[in-house]
Design a protein that fits this description.
- With 456 residues, the protein is an alpha/beta fold.
- It is built from 15 helices and 19 strands.
- Strands 2-1-3-4-5-6 form a six-stranded parallel β-sheet, sandwiched between helices. A five-stranded mixed β-barrel has the order 15-16-17-19-18. A three-stranded parallel β-sheet has the order 7-10-11, sandwiched between helices.
- Helix 4 links the parallel strand 4 and strand 5.
- Helix 13 packs parallel to helix 14.
- The protein starts with a helix and ends with a strand.
- Bound molecules: S-adenosylmethionine (SAM) and iron/sulfur cluster.
- The site of iron/sulfur cluster has 10 residues, from helix 6.
């Protein structure tokens, strides 16, 4: 089907998109939306009003699989679509992993597009409208074409900027390298040009995205060039730079230097540890020990003393003992994380860890998980106390969910900050602005205080 045929088939159609999983998926959804917008479709907030329903899926943990099947099947009871016909499309990691097999659990799906097929989604959906057949595309494709497609940004002031796709690390528990392929970096020039364009369009904060940004450039230039990228992105005039994820084994001293020296790089580092036990880290194939990780944290804090450190931790990896777990707890306390994403291990078919026998009772794992959450709450609370009585520049995102007279935004360290809207101010005028807040309350998951001075 040619471009004209695709836009003839899709012009005027409405679409709904639901995204599961990580920022990479959120960004893929922005690309799918951007493509459909450019073909004359419009986004709606309810699947009942949509001619096209798209699910962008995640298969990192098991629960997401079940949720997807439920959502697909519930589309069967939707009222007739506005155009008289509805196409259901599933993209992302489950689509890539299962391909046609997905139909066993969700037989009403019309289009299945894998993680490499985003650039073709318009064509696949248009064909499904035309011939009512199933269209499936999960072939691996080395090109980075999808990263230069139009995209539909959720916020005017913030943009996700993928700098690479895929992962080479094969952590033993993780399905990502199997469904996202090998590491592939964009060029430094392309990323810098994109950020320059975003700054011109009014973006103030970018988050550079990759499964392991520290190895950015290795495939393209023969050695990692993330530090150089940070410095060059810092020269674009963007005011806030964040990045995720950062694998400890590849965090180089030159990157820590760039973080310390580029003013726009925010004082926040997400450094996934996964476990505090060297024995478990080895089984996880993480390629660093507890001591390596702690030395890295020291090196980072030496250059950026008040940096906020966040992490990912898996509880209940096969064979994890109480002693191993105690090492995770003590590491979390020693680092003093400002936040952590904590996960119960989920067995992923096809990964090496899935073959490790384990008879740890579920209640034991749940109890460990609850104890870890408590420790993280304590470290987050303690970390936030440093901000008490300080003036913090806050990038305003909107109002608090609970109270529309309270503005909400993010501090440089990525803490959520609340403050009453100043007299006569309208939130719509403040979203995307930076405003100073004097903090008079520091809780576990937010800071609050009052606005000082004008927004800028
Ligand atoms: N590439 C990123 C990194 O290494 O930091 C992480 C990407 S992964 C989508 C996000 C997190 O999911 C991982 O850091 C890990 O904690 C968690 N995760 C991955 N596989 C998992 C599994 N099988 N069970 C539980 N959690 C898992
Ligand atoms: Fe998964 Fe490890 Fe790659 Fe992160 S670095 S995506 S945890 S394999």
């Amino acid at each position: 089907m040619d471009t004209q045929g695709i836009s003839d088939a899709l012009r005027g159609k409405t679409y709904f998109i639901r995204t599961f999983g990580c920022q990479m998926n959120l960004h893929d959804s922005e690309r799918v939306s951007g493509l459909l917008d450019s073909l004359g479709c419009s986004l709606v907030g309810d699947p009942a009003d949509a001619d096209i329903v798209i699910f962008m899926t995640c298969c990192v943990r098991e629960a997401a699989d079940q949720r997807l099947y439920g959502q697909c099947n519930s589309c069967k009871s939707l009222p007739t679509a506005p155009s008289g016909k509805r196409v259901i499309a599933v993209g992302g990691c489950i689509a890539q992993r299962d391909g046609e097999g997905l139909l066993t659990n969700a037989d009403n799906v019309d289009v299945i597009f894998g993680t490499h097929a985003i650039a073709h989604v318009g064509e696949l959906i248009a064909q499904a409208f035309e011939d009512s057949e199933r269209h499936i595309l999960t072939a691996e494709d080395e090109s980075l074409a999808a990263l230069t497609m139009p995209w539909h940004r959720e916020y005017s002031y913030h943009a996700w900027v993928p700098i690479m796709t895929g992962c080479n690390n094969f952590c033993s528990y993780c399905i990502v390298p199997y469904v996202r392929g090998r590491e592939k970096s964009r060029s430094i020039e392309e990323v810098v040009d994109e950020v320059t364009g975003l700054v011109t369009a009014g973006v103030r904060e970018v988050t550079l995205l990759g499964q392991n940004v520290n190895s950015f450039g290795r495939d393209r230039y023969g050695a990692p060039r993330f530090a150089e990228l940070l410095r060059k992105v810092g020269e674009t005039g963007v005011e806030r730079i964040r990045f995720t994820s950062s694998h400890p084994k590849d965090l180089l001293p030159e990157t820590i230097d760039a973080m310390a020296e580029v003013p726009a790089v925010m004082p926040h580092l997400h450094l996934a540890v996964q476990s505090g036990s060297t024995r478990i880290l080895k089984l996880m194939n993480r390629k660093y020990s507890r001591e390596d990780y702690l030395s890295l944290v020291d090196a980072v804090r030496e250059r950026i003393p008040d940096i906020a450190l966040t992490t990912d931790i898996i509880v209940g990896f096969p064979g994890e003992t109480e002693d191993d777990f105690a090492e995770t707890l003590s590491l979390a306390e020693a680092v003093g994380y400002s936040q952590a994403f904590t996960f119960i291990y989920s067995r992923r078919q096809g990964t090496p860890a899935a073959e490790i026998p384990d008879d740890t009772p579920r209640e034991v794992i749940q109890d460990r998980f609850d104890r870890l959450v408590k420790v993280i709450e304590d470290t987050a609370f303690a970390f936030n106390q440093h901000e008490l009585h300080q003036v913090v520049p806050v990038l305003v995102e909107g109002t608090s969910k609970k109270d529309s007279s309270v503005l909400q935004g993010k501090s440089p360290k990525n803490q959520t900050v609340h403050a009453p809207l100043p007299e006569g101010a309208r939130i719509d005028d403040l979203v995307g602005k930076i405003i100073d807040v004097r903090v008079d309350r520091a809780r576990t998951w937010y800071l609050s205080g009052s606005v000082v001075g004008a927004a800028r």
